[in-house]
Design a protein that fits this description.
The protein is α+β, with helices and mostly antiparallel strands. The protein has one domain (7-198). It contains 3 helices and 9 strands. The chain is globular. The relative contact order is 0.20.
Length: 200
C-alpha cells in the first residue's frame, strides 16, 4: 500500500490543536521560549499493511529527531486508520528557531503581539527525510488549526475565524477565561493561522 502521509509529517491534519495561555505569551515577550502542547489527528484511508506500518514507524522516528512527541496512537475506523499524536512545539520570538513548526510571537504595534504558526529551518530537513522514505510524501507547512487560549483581561483580534460555531470576517473581543479559535481552509492553506493579542 502506498502510505497516505500522516499529518504533521505530510498531508494536512484533520485537526491540530494548541493549548496556550496569556502567561505563556507574556513569558515569550519577556525573552523566554516556552513549550506549547499540541494534539493532532490525521486520517489514513484503507488498511495499514506491514509496509505502510513500517513507513509510518520510520516517519515517526524521523519526526522525533526534530519534534517533541509524547505519544502516538492508532485507531481503526470504518474508512481506515486515525493517527493521534500528542507533543509540544516551541513558542518563541526567535525568528531563527529551528523546529519544523513553532508558534512565533512578534510585535504588531507597541501594545499588541502577533501569535502565528510558522516553520523553522528543520522543516526542509523533515521534508527531505520524508521523501527518502517514500517519494510520494510531501511535507505540508500549514494545517487547520485550533487555538485554545486561556487568558484574563486580554484583548484578541483574529481574521477569518470560527468561534462557537460562528464564522467572523474579523473577530475582536475581550478574553476573561477561555477562547477557542478555529482557522481552516482558504488563505490558511497557504499561510500559518494566527491572531493578535493585547496582554493585560
Amino acid at each position: 500500500m502506498a502510505l497516505i502521509v500522516v499529518g504533521l509529517f505530510g498531508c494536512k491534519a484533520d485537526s491540530l490543536e494548541f493549548k496556550l495561555t496569556s502567561k505563556q505569551i507574556q513569558s515569550v515577550v519577556d525573552g523566554e521560549s516556552v513549550a506549547v502542547q499540541f494534539d493532532a489527528e490525521f486520517s489514513l484511508l484503507g488498511e495499514l499493511d506491514e509496509d505502510g506500518r513500517a513507513d509510518l514507524d520510520r516517519l515517526i522516528a524521523i519526526a522525533e529527531e526534530v519534534i517533541e512527541i509524547e505519544d502516538v496512537e492508532l485507531e481503526t475506523t470504518a474508512l481506515g486508520v486515525k493517527v493521534l499524536i500528542d507533543g509540544s512545539i516551541p513558542m518563541t520570538a526567535d525568528t531563527d528557531e529551528k523546529s519544523p513548526w513553532f508558534l512565533k510571537v512578534s510585535d504588531w504595534d507597541e501594545s499588541t503581539k502577533r501569535v502565528e504558526l510558522a516553520t523553522g529551518a528543520n522543516f526542509k530537513f523533515l521534508a527531505g527525510a520524508m521523501e527518502s522514505v517514500n517519494f510520494m510524501l510531501s511535507a505540508d507547512p500549514y494545517h487547520p488549526v485550533k487555538f485554545k487560549l486561556k487568558a484574563k483581561g486580554a484583548e484578541v483580534v483574529a481574521p477569518a475565524v470560527e468561534i462557537d460555531g460562528v464564522t467572523h470576517l474579523l473577530y475582536r473581543g475581550a478574553v476573561d477565561g477561555r477562547l477557542t479559535m478555529n482557522f481552516s481552509g482558504g488563505a490558511f492553506d497557504d499561510v500559518g493561522a494566527g491572531f493578535l493579542i493585547k496582554l493585560p
